């Protein structure tokens, strides 16, 4: 590890162990919980010392955590940025300290790509496109009230985050293929179940003829299900629901017919992250971008894979 020869105030007393500082977004969703577990278990398995920080959804907490990792002279910093912008200053500090940074899950918006070594995570634009393509293919069925228009309400992820920006963009691109499909209302539910429910309640009060909900993650879709049921409607039938993630609760709702389609976003990034960290510390070349492989699930496919689903 890069700690050899450093003083007692350094991150670890064990010079052989790689010390990783990981600044997590928070615990906003089932996806995030699975992601945190994957990172902790993989660090353990790889024999790394993991310094884990939960930013509780706040960028300033993540910046503080990164600064503290720099002070502790960790070998590598990995983090999943809450939002895309505002990282250049702290990343320059890490660079000046000679500590490599790996982005996981979410990207940063910067012109200086030398501020990080690699970015491991999903293609969020593609996820949004897959959701939109399914809707285009199933538009006739999704026109629940049969008025010739498919009215979609969108539950957006955290404002300013890469997945919220990219999924909305991918979805809009795909549905442009069918002019009968229109996003009639769109608001953030911050990737949480509670807010997804609240925003859906307000959509049900303010919007006429909602045919489809597109939720940027399962948790908000699950919140929307509660709101739809409370309004005396049948989710999956009276209102079609498309979500992204494919965590256990979402897959159960899909198999039960309450969600109609899920685009997978894989949270199990731990093993690849540990490999990349080792390569970076050893000075090996790593690809600038490592894209996670993902699939999609219909209701039938969810029922089939559920018994073996890890998370
Ligand atoms: O960045 C990945 C997204 O963040 C997941 O889709 C969502 O559930 C999480 O909160």
Average pLDDT reading: 95
Strand content: 15-25%
Give the N-to-C terminal Cα separation: 32 Å
Instruction: Indicate the low-confidence ranges by residue numbers.
Output: 1-10
Structural classification:
alpha/beta
Please provide the count of β strands. 12
Indicate the percent of residues in helices.
40-55%
Largest β-sheet summary: 6 strands, parallel
Radius of gyration: 21 Å
Largest sheet, spatial ordering of strands: 2-1-3-4-5-11
Multimeric organization: single chain
State the order of secondary-structure elements, H for helix, E for strand.
Answer: EHEHEHEEHHEHEHEHEHEHEEH
Bound molecules: alpha-L-arabinofuranose
DSSP summary: helix tally: 11
Overall, the morphology is elongated
Domain Periplasmic binding protein: 26-285
Pfam families: Peripla_BP_4
Subcellular location: Cell envelope
Protein name: ABC transporter substrate-binding protein
Main attributes of the structure:
311 residues, alpha/beta, 6-stranded parallel sheet, 6-stranded mixed sheet, 11 helices, 19% strand, binds alpha-L-arabinofuranose, SBP_2_dom
Overall description:
This is ABC transporter substrate-binding protein. Residues 26-285 form the Periplasmic binding protein domain. This protein has 311 residues and is an alpha/beta fold. It has 11 helices and 12 strands. It has helices at 30-46, 59-71, 88-96, 124-137, 139-142, 162-175, 193-206, 218-230, 248-255, 270-281, 299-305, and strands spanning 19-24, 49-54, 76-79, 101-104, 118-121, 150-156, 181-188, 212-215, 240-245, 261-264, 289-291, 296-297. The strands form 2 sheets. It has a 6-stranded parallel sheet with strand order 2-1-3-4-5-11, with helices on both faces. It has a 6-stranded mixed sheet with strand order 7-6-8-9-10-12, with helices on both faces. Helix 3 links the parallel strand 3 and strand 4. Helix 1 packs across helix 10 and helix 4 (124-137) runs parallel beside helix 6. The longest helix has 17 residues, at 30-46. The radius of gyration is 21 Å and the shape is elongated. Residues 28-29, 31-32, 105-106, 163, 191, 217, 219, 244-245, 265 line the site of alpha-L-arabinofuranose.
């Amino acid at each position: 590890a890069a700690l050899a020869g450093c003083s007692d105030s350094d991150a670890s007393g064990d010079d052989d162990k790689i010390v990783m500082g990981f600044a997590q977004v928070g615990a906003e969703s089932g996806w995030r919980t699975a992601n945190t577990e994957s990172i902790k278990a993989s660090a353990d398995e790889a024999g790394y010392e993991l310094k884990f920080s939960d930013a509780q959804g706040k960028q300033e907490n993540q910046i503080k955590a990164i600064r503290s990792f720099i002070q502790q002279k960790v070998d590598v910093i990995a983090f999943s940025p809450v939002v895309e912008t505002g990282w250049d200053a702290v990343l320059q500090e890490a660079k000046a300290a000679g500590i490599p940074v790996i982005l996981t899950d979410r990207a940063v918006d910067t012109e200086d790509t030398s501020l990080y070594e690699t970015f491991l995570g999903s293609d969020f634009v593609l996820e949004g496109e897959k959701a939109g393509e399914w809707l285009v293919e199933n538009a006739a069925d999704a026109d629940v009230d049969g008025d010739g228009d498919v009215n979609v309400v969108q539950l957006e992820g955290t404002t300013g985050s890469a997945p919220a920006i990219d999924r909305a963009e991918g979805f809009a691109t795909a549905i442009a293929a069918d002019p009968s499909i229109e996003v009639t209302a769109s608001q953030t539910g911050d990737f949480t179940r509670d807010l997804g429910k609240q925003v859906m309640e307000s959509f049900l009060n303010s919007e006429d003829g909602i045919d489809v909900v597109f939720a940027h993650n399962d948790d908000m879709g699950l919140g929307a299900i509660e709101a739809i049921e409370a309004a005396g409607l049948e989710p999956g039938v009276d209102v079609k629901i498309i979500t992204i993630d494919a965590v256990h609760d979402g897959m159960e709702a899909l198999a039960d017919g309450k969600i109609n389609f899920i685009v997978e976003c894989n949270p199990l990034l731990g093993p690849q992250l540990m490999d990349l960290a080792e390569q970076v510390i050893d000075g090996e070349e790593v690809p600038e971008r490592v894209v996670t492989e993902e699939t999609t699930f219909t209701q039938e496919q969810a029922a089939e894979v559920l018994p073996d689903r890890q998370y």
